[in-house]
Each structure stands twice: as C-alpha cells, then as structure tokens.
Amino acid sequence: MAGITDLQQLLSSMQPHLVEGEFVFCTLTGKVDEYLHWQPVAAFCEQEGLSLVIRKQTALENHIEFENTYRQITLTVHSSLDAVGLTAAVSTKLASHGISANVIAAFYHDHIFVQSCHAETALTLLSNW
Questions:
Q1: SS (H, E, C) the chain
Q2: Would you place residue 62 in the very low, low, confident or very high pLDDT band (cuts 50, 70, 90)?
Q3: Which residues, at least 6 apart from 28, have a Cβ–Cβ distance to it below 8 Å?
Q4: Residue 91 is part of a domain; what is its CATH number?
Q5: Percentage of the chain with pLDDT > 70?
Q6: How many domains does the chain contain in total?
Q7: CB 20 within 8 Å of CB 32
Q8: Domain limits at 121?
Q9: Which residues contact 9 (CB under 8 A, 6 or more apart)?
C-alpha cells in the first residue's frame, strides 16, 4: 500500500499517538550492531559518531550521558516518504508554541520527539488541525 502524499489529507486524517516512556538522544563510538541489544528506536551514523535514540532507562542502566528527555509522538497516518510539507507543517505548529520538534521519518509513519515537559501540549496541538 502506497503512503499518502496529499498534505491536507495527511493532516486531517492523522491521529497522533503519545508513545509510553521517555527517550534520550546520545552519541557513541562504534557500530550500531554493538548496541542492538539496547533496542534503539533510531540510529544514524554521523561523521562525529553514532547517534542513537534509546529509552531513558537504558541510558541510565548503561551510564550514558544525555542532556534532556523526550517523548515520542507517532503520527498514525501512512505518510509517503515523497509527501511534501508534513514535517514543515508539524514543526511550524509546534514552533509557534515554543516547542522543538525532532522529526524522524520511517517507512510508514513520522515520529516527532518533543521535550518531555511539552509532550501533552504537543499532542493536543497536533490533534487539532
């Protein structure tokens, strides 16, 4: 099934879901396969090191430093990777309320990581288009 590309259809049909728990962003040395047992929700190889998004509890258990905690909001609509404007619309709406949006696009859904203290407000904002 192909994802939706029409921005208005994406915005009107998405039902944002707040995922249970808190997450952290961290950077490490080594390769992603060394950390798969941590079950990261995202990984990206950058020039400066390996960036992971992991559960806060995993970071604490493994003595990983982090600056802030985040909550994951999944936009429960099958957005196409070729859709234009969804990230911009979501980021703009949250930014207008002083909330940063760390967006990760996966095959089926877009996932927005917001500071934990702003999660409920962000969920409300994204639920109302």
A1: CCCECCHHHHHHHCCEEECCCCEEEEEECCCHHHCHHHCCCEEEEECCEEEEEEEHHHHHHCCCCCCCCEEEEEECCCECCCCCCHHHHHHHHHHCCCCCCEEEECCCCEEEEEEHHHHHHHHHHHHCC
A2: very high
A3: 35, 49, 50, 52, 64
A4: 3.30.2130.10
A5: 99
A6: 1
A7: no
A8: 1-127
A9: none
